[in-house]
């Protein structure tokens, strides 16, 4: 019998991940808060569940990828939530970016029901999700990762086992802190150069040949130069991740002064944006009114 897979959350990331699971031949049951997105996948062979509980009951491996901690709590513990339907012996894999503390709480709830849990947030963006080239950062038992590896391989190319429950989310938050600061610093440097009368394109050219070179430049610098911010990784989610990193840092007593400042910059742009924008729109902070 092929492994049956459930997937809850068909946003920018979940939708292409589901498409790749279908392409790989896994029997797939999906649930999404906005039903229309699930119905689209039914045309490609997915079964649409009536509730998160129903999606869980149909799955050997259940994946969740929703916006934030309240969304994840709602699909797991809310009315007809997934935990109530989880099969004994199944594995819940959460790829949302949430707090390590919530990951550990879910692990305990799964253990009570005789199921296993992995926190497995991802990096690679929507293009990585579309190409099936996501990178998974995993916390939990190594043996559980081996059991779900064939499923994850339909969506990803690298799998880092980082430690016990919560370790995947810890590294993910550190990764996003880095990306937020990198793109914020890039935008800040471009604003300085532009205001001084030198084309920001020139700065990007020099950066590409220097120690300041980073992969985010390839994707985010053209967006900033064009001033076009169609969301790939929405700024509202990066703002959420900076908040989660600061929350963790506060619990641990680790000062993150640059992250705290960056969160204020992202917060200002979020507050001033009427539409959903990519986090490269942090560059709008330096636009003249
Ligand atoms: N986009 C990226 O490049 C990227 C990369 C790595 C990691 N991530 C992380 O992956 C997760 C999903 O990101 P995304 O870009 O796919 O986000 P998204 O496009 O905003 O999709 C969010 C998903 O969560 C669902 N949702 C939101 N609130 C909910 C609630 N209260 N109850 C039930 N479902 C709810 C949405 O349902 P509706 O369709 O009904 O709104 C949708 O399916 C986030 O944690 C994000 O930080 C994103």
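^ Assign residues to that structure.
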């Amino acid at each position: 019998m092929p492994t049956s897979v459930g997937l809850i959350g068909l946003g920018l990331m979940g939708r292409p991940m589901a498409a790749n699971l279908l392409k790989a031949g896994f029997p797939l049951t999906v649930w999404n808060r906005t039903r229309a997105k699930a119905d689209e996948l039914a045309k490609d062979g997915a079964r649409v569940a009536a509730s998160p509980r129903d999606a869980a009951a149909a799955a050997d491996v259940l994946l969740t990828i929703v916006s934030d901690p309240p969304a994840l709590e709602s699909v797991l513990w809310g009315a007809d939530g997934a935990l109530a339907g989880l099969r004994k012996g199944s594995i819940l894999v959460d790829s949302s970016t949430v707090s390590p503390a919530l990951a550990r709480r879910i692990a305990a709830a799964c253990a009570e029901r005789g199921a296993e849990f992995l926190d497995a947030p991802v990096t690679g963006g929507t293009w990585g999700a579309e190409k099936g080239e996501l990178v998974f950062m995993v916390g939990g038992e190594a043996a559980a990762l081996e059991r779900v590896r064939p499923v994850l391989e339909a969506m990803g190319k690298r799998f880092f086992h980082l430690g016990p429950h919560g370790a995947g989310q810890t590294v993910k938050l550190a990764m996003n802190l880095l990306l937020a600061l990198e793109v914020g610093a890039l935008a800040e440097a471009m604003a300085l150069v532009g205001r001084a009368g030198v084309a920001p394109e020139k700065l990007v050219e020099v950066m590409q040949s220097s120690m300041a070179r980073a992969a985010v430049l390839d994707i985010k610098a053209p967006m900033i130069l064009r001033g076009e911010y169609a969301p790939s990784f929405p700024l509202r989610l990066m703002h959420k991740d900076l908040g989660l990193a600061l929350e963790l840092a506060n619990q641990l007593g680790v000062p993150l002064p640059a992250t705290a400042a960056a969160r204020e910059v992202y917060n200002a742009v979020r507050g001033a944006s009427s539409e959903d924008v990519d986090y490269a729109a942090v560059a709008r902070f330096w636009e003249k009114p």
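Strands lie at 5-8, 28-31, 47-48, 61-64, 91-94, 116-119, 122-123, 134-139, 156-163.
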